[in-house]
Write a structure and sequence with these properties.
The chain is an alpha+beta fold. Helices cover 46% and strands 8% of the residues. It is built from 42 helices and 25 strands.
């Protein structure tokens, strides 16, 4: 049911717009790139007939596999206890992996029979495991322990099921009376307490109903031969709640009680004998409590939102957990000691599934995603087993650091420099970063997706201070020597180099999207060898005949700011900032985002230069040749254009010029002879000026081998190498002079609003700035004029710097600790790092069990130093001294603090936030309780507080590119005001995302959020609520319960709850968001102003005036700080405060605030703007009220009790007016437009699009042209706002150009 790939009109436009004129269609998309898959999802209904229950109908879709019906049946309350069955249509068994549309005779109303099948050992195990999962379905321990892709969600605790039936259920009468609005003390503005326990509130459902005391494998397993021949598969041992001990046989026909006891084996069936195909039916027979509680448990289970129970694609670990009782669990016990995995058959020796090439792209990606998350889970488990010493090395006689391992067909190596491989690059330090560079390379080549080119499945795991790289194994590689396998690239960093025509052909296809230049190098015999990648990239043909590439650690060009090369002069911008700087290793690369931004920047430059020259030619045909010679010598040209970068204004005048250049460039590229030589000259000069490798069209590429130790280039390419060196210097300068200032400017404009270390890192990475520049970014902030408005960024930067430096120290610290001392060592480190206690003493693990005989032989098993107690001597002074010197050496930033208390004071940091950051970075899980960091008499942490240490896993996220294109076109449509079409496209994207990723994924979360926003704008409040609820649950489950993204999602959900008149729920959600933000960052954050305005407005609506004022006045203070006291945001804040004072009849205060607001409007917008007029009207009204009140008071004073009192108008604010204000502050404006306005609007949008087309680049437009360019998919967007008309991102009420029906510029 996939429609033949129809070129979708709107998408075609979108694609062209994205190709920026110099990126060809992505290679490997089978040539015709415009194809987009439209899924015709017309479902139909089938009837299911299962034993023992009434037949029921099930809605299915033609692309589903039969297997998916199996899954549904295993989840349904009435059929969940069956696992071993087949589905039959008219007596024919259906193939599990067949798509429904391929099954003959299956149509609307067909009857499918569920037929019980005989068990095998495998099926019996699966059955027991499934029953265990059903018994544990409400128990959060797997989520706390980070097992099986379970993770936490707390939304239902705060909504108390209020969102049921998509939010249509409302309480009787008005909710006014029964709302208790007072938040807990720690949530109020100004509170200094940051409790930790509230992070994971206890859920009532967690005390699960006990169905059995024990369900475990019997000690009589495996069955002896003669019993096996009677069909016994395995034996189970059960203790019921009534304390009855029974032994159960699992046989091929089902389950029955046998007569064995703990000490006597008697496999005969017990009396009365009862054979049941399902274990649940058998247990229902023997235990009444089981029967009652199991059905109650399943009722509860199916009531939970599906998103609370579906597994996530990758494991999310929680950094805190409550104290849990350890329960007996047969499945977990068995898992712990088997090395085989349930899905070993899925993990072949390569990354991309074999015969999927010819399947439609979507299906191929779906398989790829599934294999990928399985591979990541297996690799993580294997890496932990390797470090814990549970896997035998393949070279056991070598010293520990050198060992390599194979487990489950995955190859593991440790991040140490084995055999001096990285001697020239920085030894162990280089060996530690190489895997992450390699992973970035794998990610990039996978994204380009060239047919016939394969990468290895790669996962990098940091665990207990060690870095382990896990890779899938190339088929056949273990039988050959590496030297004879490598047919492309070099195994010794460029001494011997080989090449291969097939590899050149495949890599050539990637060179354009990856901007890699084909180049020649010399090998040790001085022969020229042609390569299209860096020399370390190796090509090996596997026994399966596929072309694999590996060692992609230098896919991107080197970062010269951190690679001093003798005799090379760096540009001025770099020298000014103290570069080049010696780094710990020589593998520093530029990020792909930087390469793309740099090329984008150069393209703009190229267009400008060419346009200027064409205009000059026009202006004076006579002297044109002379002018050209002067105007465009490369150095001069670049420098000049860098200057003109600042005054972009000129572009508008020569849009036509740019159009001509574009046409000209295309004609020349197509190489027809019609172009006159002078125009050719223009393009050639422009190409030369920007460093393009071709002189007929714009094409910038990098040679990744430049400045690589040991690589030599032939004489013939001397000039080319010189140009490449210059290009690398320019790119390094571009990072410092454009990208860092750009990031800081975006932070000033609040278009980027990081809230914690991870979101700051993400914002830096999106602009191609590596984390090693963090110190430079912070220094740049301190020198920025609006420094106070960047307080929050400065604070996040410093805490990130401190925790990253601490993480580097913690890594080597842990390597010296043996397993038995782990919790003592970690608690000691955290005490030194965060506690005010001056001299914490480490408890050596020898206390618990002292062995009399010292075993001398076991010394060398530990990967670390021989002395395993060195860690115990660390002191807080020493640790902080190391942190400061690490910050200086690595980030080039001087910290001014000698201990945790000073750091907290000088930089205004919260210790709880530092604890969260360091725990997330190192994988430590601590006990959920209140920690007293400031006690000077006893240390903060004891070893009982350290519950676990998890791996920190880096892996590749496969991209669903088709779905992503739909998503982007949907956004573009919405921004142009075509809401309906946008909505359809985004629904289509959601459909595709679900097909590729399954139900849970970060990108699906963004999709749902935008859909909810659109539902809300289009007036469908309950649908908005239902979609946003899914987005919140998904964000909690996939990103974490206190991730900044989750906080945003909570805020949106609160707004939609309010619109659905669920006021108390809205308040609960806002309070939760505020608590999380206080924990993650603290109070002083621009986003807190928005949150407090929301809370204040809702409280105003429920007439809690005094509380409301506390929040609104706090928001006013924060807005004034971060937006400047003259900004329109502050004016709005004044107005909100004035309204509450009016409701309290305190007219003097109300007048004072409204006057402030009025003054701002008048100065910013002028007398005649509608906002100024509104404000002035309101002032008049307040004055009248104040006068009336005064009259009444005077009357009372004069005449005492028999005064004639005029009734004053005290009105509780109407819900509609509150909602209107909520919409304004959350950036949703509804502007009624007439037909004529709409016509103008469409013309305006078209004009803008033409402008866009001609400039062909989003980065460098003036803000005014950014309307269609904002990408909301990036989590750094402050909210799911659909930013339209960001004429200036700072203010909402600036004179709006006539754009779009809903104006959803984020609270602008």
């Amino acid at each position: 049911m996939f429609a033949a790939f129809a070129p979708h009109e709107s998408l075609r436009g979108e694609k062209d717009a994205r190709q920026n004129g110099h990126e060809e269609a992505e290679a490997g998309e089978d040539g015709n790139d415009q194809e987009v898959i439209v899924i015709q999802d017309t479902g139909f209904t089938v009837k299911i007939c299962a034993p023992g229950i009434e037949p029921f109908s099930l809605q299915v879709s033609p692309q589903e596999m039969v297997q998916e019906i199996h899954q549904v049946l295993m989840d349904r309350e009435d059929t969940c206890h069956r696992t071993c069955f087949s589905l039959q249509l008219d007596g024919n068994v259906l193939d599990n992996f067949a798509e429904l549309k391929t099954i003959e005779g299956l149509q609307e109303g067909s009857l499918l029979k569920v037929v019980e099948e005989p068990y095998t050992v495998r099926e019996a195990r699966i059955h027991v495991r499934h029953i265990r999962d059903l018994l544990k379905s409400l128990d959060p321990s797997d989520a706390f322990n980070g097992v099986d892709c379970n993770s936490l969600s707390f939304l239902s605790v705060f909504t108390e099921g209020d969102l049921g039936d998509s939010g249509k259920r409302k309480k009787k009468g008005t909710e006014m009376e029964q709302i208790d609005c007072t938040p807990p003390e720690h949530i109020l503005p100004g509170s200094k307490e940051r409790p930790l326990c509230a992070l994971q509130p206890q859920n009532r459902d967690w005390k699960p109903l006990q169905c059995l005391k024990v369900l475990t494998m019997s000690g009589w397993n495996p069955p002896p031969g003669n019993r096996k021949m009677h069909g016994d598969l395995m034996y189970l041992y059960v203790i019921t709640v009534e304390d009855r001990h029974v032994s159960i046989t699992a046989s091929t026909r089902g389950f029955y009680l046998n007569q064995s006891t703990a000490y006597n084996f008697n496999p005969k069936p017990a009396n009365p004998s009862f054979l049941s195909h399902s274990l649940v039916e058998l247990l229902n027979q023997i235990s009444p409590t089981f029967k009652k509680n199991f059905s109650a448990l399943q009722k509860k289970r199916v009531q939970r939102h599906p998103f609370e129970r579906i597994a996530t694609p990758f494991q999310v670990y929680s950094w805190t957990a409550p104290q849990a009782e350890h329960a007996m669990d047969c499945v977990r016990a068995e898992d712990a000691y088997t090395s085989r995995l349930g899905y070993e058959e899925h993990i072949p020796g390569q990354q991309k599934p074999a015969d999927l090439r010819n399947l439609q792209r979507v299906l191929r990606r779906r398989c790829w995603e599934g294999v990928h998350s399985d591979f990541t889970a297996a690799a993580t488990r294997g890496a932990m087993a390797v470090i814990d010493g549970n896997v035998m090395a393949i070279n056991p006689s070598e010293e520990t650091k050198m060992q390599m391992f194979i487990w489950n067909n995955i190859f593991f190596s440790l991040g140490f420099d084995v055999r001096d491989h990285y001697k020239d690059f920085g030894g162990d330090v280089a060996a530690y970063v190489a895997p992450t560079n390699d992973l970035n390379g794998v990610r990039t080549y996978n994204a380009v997706d060239v047919e016939g080119l394969y990468t290895l499945g790669t996962v990098v795991v940091d665990y207990r201070g060690y870095r382990v790289t896990a890779q899938s194994i190339i088929p056949g590689i273990l039988e050959r020597e590496q030297e004879q396998s490598v047919i492309y690239g070099s195994i010794d960093f460029g001494k011997t180099v080989v090449s291969h025509p097939k590899y050149l052909e495949l890599l050539e296809k990637t060179s354009r999207p990856l901007k890699i230049q084909k180049h020649k190098v010399l090998n040790d015999k001085n022969e020229e060898v042609e390569l299209c990648s860096s020399v370390e990239c190796k090509g090996i043909i596997g026994n399966d005949g596929r072309h694999y590439i590996l060692d992609l650690l230098r896919t991107f060009p080197p970062d010269l700011n951190f690679l001093p090369v003798e005799g090379e002069e760096m540009p001025e911008e770099c020298k000014k900032m103290g570069f080049p700087k010696q780094h710990r290793h020589k593998l520093c690369c530029l990020r792909q985002e930087l390469v793309d931004a740099f090329v984008e920047h150069r393209y703009l430059l190229f267009m400008k230069l060419a346009a200027l020259q064409l205009m000059q030619q026009k202006a004076n045909k006579q002297e044109s040749s002379g002018a050209l010679e002067n105007g465009a010598s490369p150095e001069n040209g670049t420098a000049e254009s860098e200057k003109s970068e600042s005054d972009d204004g000129k572009i508008d005048d020569n849009v036509t010029g740019l159009d001509q250049v574009k046409e000209l460039a295309e004609t020349i590229a197509s190489d027809d002879g019609t172009v006159d030589p002078k125009s050719r000259e223009v393009i050639r000069n422009a190409c030369k000026a920007v460093g393009s490798i071709s002189d007929t069209s714009f094409d910038i590429r990098f040679n990744p081998d430049i400045f690589s130790p040991g690589v030599r280039f032939p004489e013939s390419s001397k000039e080319e190498v010189q140009d490449q060196k210059q290009l690398l210097k320019d790119a390094a300068a571009f990072l410092l002079s454009c990208q860092i200032p750009g990031l800081v400017k975006d932070c000033l404009d609040h278009t980027v609003l990081p809230m914690d270390g991870a979101t700051l890192a993400e914002a830096m990475h999106q602009r191609g700035i590596n984390m090693r520049y963090l110190g430079k970014v912070i220094n740049f902030i301190t020198k920025t004029p609006g420094r106070a408005q960047l307080d929050h960024i400065f604070k996040i930067g410093i805490s990130e710097l401190i925790t990253r430096s601490a993480k580097h120290i913690f890594k080597t610290y842990l390597q010296g600790v043996e397993l038995s001392g782990l919790s003592a060592a970690i608690s000691h480190f955290l005490n030194c790092f965060l506690s005010s206690f001056p001299n914490p003493i480490a408890h050596l693990p020898a206390d618990e069990l002292v062995s009399k005989k010292k075993n001398k032989k076991r010394k060398n098993r530990n990967l670390g130093n021989a002395d395993n107690t060195a860690w115990a001597s660390m002191t807080p002074q020493e640790l902080w001294k190391n942190i400061c010197s690490e910050a200086k050496n690595y980030f080039d930033f001087s910290l001014e603090c000698e201990n945790a208390d000073q750091a907290a004071e000088v930089y205004n940091l919260q210790k709880i936030t530092l604890l969260r950051e360091i725990s997330l970075k190192t994988g430590v899980q601590i006990l959920l309780k209140e920690y007293n960091f400031d006690n000077r008499h006893k240390p903060t942490f004891t070893e009982e507080d350290i519950l676990n240490i998890f791996p920190v896993v880096k892996h590749v996220n496969p991209k669903a590119s088709d779905a992503f294109h739909f998503f982007q076109s949907g956004q573009a449509k919405v921004q142009q005001g075509f809401l309906k079409e946008g909505c359809e496209l985004i629904n289509e994207a959601l459909n595709l995302f679900n097909n590729v990723y399954g139900a849970m994924h970060v990108e699906i979360c963004a999709c749902l959020r935008l859909l909810a926003r659109l539902n809300y704008i289009m007036g469908d409040y309950s649908e908005a609520l239902s979609n946003q609820q899914k987005a919140v649950l998904m964000s909690e489950r996939v990103l974490g319960i206190e991730h900044p993204n989750t906080i945003q999602e909570y805020m949106h959900l609160a707004l939609y709850c309010f619109a659905n008149s669920q006021l108390s729920t809205a308040l609960n959600l806002l309070y939760r968001a505020r608590y999380l933000m206080l924990l993650v960052f603290g109070e002083d954050h621009p986003e807190m102003a928005l949150l407090d305005n929301n809370i204040g407005l809702v409280l105003h609506g429920v007439m809690e005036y005094d509380l409301s004022l506390r929040f609104l006045e706090n928001a006013l203070a924060i807005s004034s700080k971060y937006h400047g006291s003259k900004s329109l945001k502050v004016a709005l804040s004044h107005h909100l405060v004035a309204r509450v004072y009016e409701s309290k009849a305190e007219f003097r205060s109300a007048l004072q605030h409204e006057k402030e607001g009025y003054t701002i409007y008048k100065n910013q917008l002028g007398e005649h703007h509608e906002k100024t007029k509104e404000s002035s009207e309101y002032l008049k009204y307040l004055t009248q009220q104040a006068v009336a009140l005064q009259r009444t008071m005077n009357e009372i004073y004069k005449n005492g009790s028999n005064a004639n009192i005029m009734p004053l108008k005290f009105t509780a604010p109407s819900m509609a007016s509150i909602l209107e204000q909520l919409n304004i502050i959350n950036g949703i404006l509804f502007i009624p437009l007439s037909q004529k306005d709409l016509e103008n609007l469409k013309a305006e949008v078209q004009r803008r699009q033409q402008l866009q087309e001609s400039i062909k680049s989003g980065e460098h437009l003036e803000p005014d042209d950014k309307a269609v360019e904002e990408k909301e998919a990036e989590p750094s967007m402050p909210s799911a706002a659909i930013p339209l008309t960001q004429s200036s991102p700072k203010d909402l009420f600036s004179p709006l150009p006539p754009v779009t029906i809903p104006i959803c510029a984020k609270e602008n």
